[in-house]
Amino acid sequence: MNWFAYASLCALSIGTADALTKKALKSNDTYFMAWVRFGFAAPFMATLFPFIEVPQLDSPFFLITFLLLPLDIIALLLYLKAIRISPLSLTLPFLSLTPVFLIGTSYIILGELPDKTGVIGIMLVATGAYLLNVHTVHLGILGPIKAIGKERGSVLMIVVAFLFSITSILGKIAVQHSNPTFFAVFYSFLLSFSLFFIIQFKTKRIVSKIVSQPLLFLFIGICMAIMMLTHLKAISLVEVSYMISVKRMSLLLGVVYGTLFFKERNIKERFLGSATMILGIVLISLF
């Protein structure tokens, strides 16, 4: 498959994992579900061990991994808190800000700079964010903007989008100093062990929770395993900003899931806002 196919499969798997995770968050805490996403993915990642070519790891690999791990854990916890307290259709679209932030972080870290059409793309992303809450325009032209600040999940997801603009780049560097399959497996286990250590202090009755919803957790793990492999494979084949632009198609899937499974309201404007933001991502990343 080419990078676009990998990125599209990545979008489908993460969008599905998010919806299943939101369902599970109704009866489980954020820290535990953070571990579930990687702990239940680990067995599937382990099946790849016989096929992994272990690369010669250098000091930059370990340094980047050391920097990446805490940022990913913080981003993950904020991510799950956002989708727990707010509708999927009002939180996930703000991940479209990642490519906007990537304009700066990619240039600083990798020296990658998108075309001038990125300015138009940024305007479209901003317009899309405005449209997500356009029903509040009766409160004034700044109503939709103020509504973003009042929705805690939206604010948290904006922070996550910025963190992802950094972790995406660090992940690409780590892959360049190893290989996609090795890093996907190695890093998934590293995240799983780190998060399991954390929940020892944050979650009670861990064993009983693990066996409480095995089928749901299993599906989340499968989706996360697919997401990790396709994400790292895609960014090994193309610039980070290009891959992220396609991966963010999961935003529309989040709006659809929000409608079908969580009965979220004002879906038409949120779908329009999300679609506008994705168009902005395309202009930022692909032209």
Q: Explain this structure to me?
A:
The radius of gyration is 18 Å and the shape is globular. It has one domain (3-286). The chain has 15 helices and no strands. With 287 residues, the chain is mainly alpha-helical. The relative contact order is 0.23.
Keywords:
globular; 15 helices; mainly alpha
| Count of discrete domains | 1
* Count of helical stretches: 15
Mean pLDDT: 85
Broad structural category: mainly alpha
Uncertain stretches of 5 or more adjacent residues: none
Give the termini distance in whole angstroms. 22 Å
Let me know the largest β-sheet: none
Sequence of secondary-structure elements: HHHHHHHHHHHHHHH
Question: How much helical structure, as a percent, in the residues?
Answer: over 70%
Extended strand count: 0
- Shape, per Cα inertia axes: globular
Q: Roughly what fraction of the amino acids lie in strands? A: under 5%
Radius of gyration: 18 Å
